[in-house]
Design a protein that fits this description.
It holds the Pfam family DUF3679. It is a single chain. 63% of the residues lie in helices and 12% in strands. The protein has three helices and three strands. A hairpin with a 2-residue loop joins strand 2 and strand 3.
C-alpha cells in the first residue's frame, strides 16, 4: 500500500514537472527569439457580438452565426465525404490510441480497487 501511494505521488510530481518545464521552455524560446509576450500558435477570444475569434498562426478566423435550419442531406453528404477521404493510417492510429486509453483506464481502476 505504501509503495503504491509513493508511486502515485511520484507520477503526479513528474507530470507537474513536465508541465512546468514545457511552459518554462516556451517562455525561454520566446525570450531568445525576442518575441516576449508574442501570441501563441492558437488564440481563442470571444467578441462582443457573441462570436468567437480564433487566431491560428497569426491569421484571424471569425465564426459565423449558426444555421437556423439543418439540412440533413448536406450533413450526410459531408459525413460520407469525410469517411471516404480518411487515411487508413489515421484510422489505425485513432483505434490504437483508443485501445491504449481503455487499457490505461482499466489498469487504473484495478490499481485503485486493489488499494482500497
Amino acid at each position: 500500500m505504501r509503495v503504491m501511494v509513493q508511486c502515485c505521488f511520484l507520477v503526479i510530481m513528474l507530470m507537474v514537472g513536465i508541465g512546468i518545464g514545457i511552459n518554462q521552455a516556451e517562455k525561454n524560446m520566446q525570450m531568445m527569439q525576442g518575441a516576449d509576450g508574442a501570441p501563441r500558435a492558437i488564440q481563442i477570444t470571444p467578441t462582443e457580438q457573441g462570436r468567437i475569434e480564433i487566431a491560428v498562426l497569426g491569421q484571424t478566423v471569425k465564426t459565423q452565426s449558426p444555421a437556423s435550419v439543418v439540412n440533413q442531406e448536406k450533413v450526410d453528404k459531408v459525413a460520407t465525404q469525410v469517411k471516404q477521404g480518411t487515411n487508413i493510417m489515421a484510422v489505425m492510429g485513432n483505434e490504437m490510441g483508443e485501445g491504449i486509453r481503455q487499457i490505461t483506464r482499466e489498469l487504473a481502476e484495478w490499481v485503485f480497487r486493489w488499494a482500497d
